[in-house]
Amino acid sequence: MENLLQNNFDSLIESISYDKNRSLYYSEKYFIYFNHDTDCDDSSEGLDKIKSRYSHRINNFNNLMSSDKFIIFILFKCTNLSHVKKIYKILKKKHKKMIMFYIDCENKVKRCKLSKKIILIKQKSFLDDIDHWWLPENKPLLYNLMVPITMQVLKHTKKYYPNFTMEEKDIIRNCNQWYDL
User: Fold this and answer.
1) Which of 118, 97, 103 is nearest to 163 (CA)?
2) Do 82 and 109 contact (CB within 8 A), yes or no?
3) Which of 68, 97, 158, 172 has the fewest Cβ atoms within 10 Å of its own Cβ atom?
4) Distance (Å, rounded) from C-alpha 42 to C-alpha 39?
5) pTM for this model (two decimals)
6) Alpha helices in 66-181 (DSSP H)
7) Which H or E run includes 6?
8) Tell me, what DSSP letter sits at residue 10?
C-alpha cells in the first residue's frame, strides 16, 4: 500500500494479471490481490472489467485527495507499524484535512509504538481467522465487528473535529448498506 500511494498508483492498471491457482486478479508490480473482485473471471471481459473498476476508483481517490473535504482513513490488519506511519505521512502530505485510525483486532499494538497522530482503536474480533476477513462466509461476523469500530471512529472524530457532522444513525445505515452488498 505504501508504494502504491507513494507512486500515485503508477502502473497499477497495467500490471494486473490473473492468478489461475487462486482464481483472483492481482498486481504483479505491487503484489496486491483483489480479493473482493471475484465477479471478474479469467477472460478478456473480466480483465477489462477489473481494469475499468480500478481506473474509476483511482480517479475517485485522486479527486477526493485534491478536494477540500475532510477525510477519514481507517487502516485494518496492517502487519508492519512502520508501514502504517509511512502511509500516514504520504496521505498527510497529499491532503492536510484528514484523520487516520488504526484498528487493532488482535491486541498486538502498543500506543507508544504508533504515532500520536494516528488514533489506535482496539476492538476484539469476532473472527477466528482475522487474515480471512474478506471471505464471503465471514461477512456477518465482519458486520458485527464494523459497527462498534465505526462508532468509536465517530466518537474520536467528533473529539478531534467538533464540527464533524455524521451521526450515529448514519453510521448504522452505512454499515447496513455495506452488509447488503
Assistant:
1) 97
2) no
3) 68
4) 10
5) 0.74
6) 81-94, 139-160, 168-180
7) helix 2-6
8) T
* Under 8 Å between Cβ of 29 and 13: no
Per-residue pLDDT 10s for the chain (181 aa) are 888 999 999 999 999 999 999 899 999 999 999 988 889 999 999 999 999 999 999 999 999 999 988 888 888 766 678 888 899 999 999 998 888 888 777 777 766 667 778 888 777 766 666 666 666 676 666 666 677 777 777 777 777 777 766 655 565 555 555 444 3
Q: Which DSSP symbol is given to 96?
A: S
- Identify the DSSP state of 126: S
Whether the Cβ atoms of residue 83 and residue 144 lie closer than 8 Å to each other = no
3-class secondary structure per residue, 58-86: HHHHHHHHCCCCCEEEEEECCCCHHHHHH
Phi, psi of 118 (to 5 degrees): -105, 125
φ, ψ of residue 71 in degrees (nearest 5): -120, 135
Instruction: Provide the pLDDT for residue 179.
Output: 45
Q: Is 119 helix (H, G, I), strand (E, B) or coil?
A: strand
Residue linked to cell 471471505:
135
Q: Which of 72, 175, 74 is nearest to 123 (CA)?
A: 74
> Which three three-digit cell numbers place residue 27?
498486481
**Structure confidence at residue 133 (pLDDT):** 65
